[in-house]
């Protein structure tokens, strides 16, 4: 099957068909281009979606911890990789399919134009041969008619008796001339005819089949190129299927990694305060004054009965109300005496036992936000700590359990940094030894500044670790002893009100606000413990300042780094230790700024 033999007379049809083939090729190239744009837009939208829902992590505290969150972020990462694969598909199609199609379409147009021009030239040459043959034919025909006319004129004159001999001779010469010219035109026509037949045979059996064959081959190559592009179009998608499958498998694994038990445990670890639940509320019986016995019929009996009040009745009166969002108003009671520490008085003067509800009152004080009050000396110390950054540095603003975790995390980070610095120091020492043995490799003295800087960093990290370990041991000691304290009752519910810090925040130690056992000689409140010290306290140890402290606030004691002071009162859990200089000057210093050494025979006095 060949276009040259089967379609020898369909030049115009082949012209239209080859033009349609190129148009179809360009149309498919346009389709691929639009598909590439779709893939690029799809990948861009996926990346924007991932970027929109990915967390903006400015600190480690904002990193996802729950397994459901981690799984979602893993899915976002896999989706981002999936978007990258869509971009790979677009790039592969653009390079392998669309670019190749556009280049081939340009070459195809050039080749088609060349073949069609050759066909038109061959047709024009055949037309020219035909015109020459036709002209010689017409000329031969005309000369033959003229020769016939000349013959008829000669025969008429030859048969005419009246015609002269000269006229007959002239007609004969004219006949011979026309006959001779007809013979020449006949030969010319025969030659032109033979030439045209040869060119025509060559045109339809050699030239045109060759040109049509080239057009056929061109069209077949176009079809093959389309087939290859179809295959490349599919291969571009198929190549990324394994990676896309891995992305989808990653999403499935992320979904399987969700652990609801672990998330629940993380919630516990994140919000556990370390406090004990409040105890039971005591029963408050207000009906004792209403019901009377039958024997209470006289006035004297009622007066006597008014002096006997049930202890349960007075519990509620003495205890009052627990205010959830504010400080409980202070009761109008007389100064505490040794008797009033464990008893309460009614309006008529009778006394009765009171029972502490310290666990409940303590937990209620933990969550309430008190109104501003006149700050005590201890509150001034805490305010100074906030200014110095100690409250944030030692996480004292957090509940015990959260504070312990934060301190442990910081210690772990400091230990990792210390290990890095130690490794760097070891490497510098080795390099220094190599330089000392081989001076041509380097100057050992050039490593001294780096070694000094590393040593300073190591010392600084060790001091930080020591300071944080001291805070951690302090928290762990309080956490371990809180259970015992929470189950014990206090001396009076009025004393438990001192557990609340003046700022309305919680305190970790029950002895922070009431130092020492209840005094038997009079009433002492929080201000008395902090300011009223008539006799100088004995020294129970000594300390050495690790860091300098300015001591601008009232009641604090300034100290220099390396200065030795006497310890006259231990840290009660608020981060301050009472110290004294040799000249007798006393004040509070931050416990984390000193290295304390207590005397064995005086510790706890």
Report on this model:
- Belongs to the FNBP1 family.
- One of its GO terms (molecular function) is lipid binding.
- Residues 538-599 form the SH3 domain.
- The protein has 605 residues and is mainly alpha-helical.
- Among the domains are: 3-56 and 63-262, Substrate Binding Domain Of Dnak, Chain:A, Domain 2 (Up-down Bundle), CATH 1.20.1270; 400-477, Helix Hairpins; 541-598, SH3 Domains (SH3 type barrels), CATH 2.30.30.
- It has 15 helices and 7 strands.
- Helix 12 (400-437) packs antiparallel against helix 13 (448-487).
- It is rod-shaped.
- Residues 297-391 and 483-534 have low confidence and may be disordered.
Largest sheet data = 5 strands, antiparallel
The helicity comes to: 55-70%
Percent of residues in beta strands: 5-15%
The radius of gyration is 57 Å
Q: How many strand elements? A: 7
GO molecular function, one term: lipid binding
Family: Belongs to the FNBP1 family.
Pfam family, one: SH3_1
Subcellular location: Cell membrane; Cytoplasm, Cell cortex; Cytoplasm, Cytoskeleton; Cytoplasmic vesicle
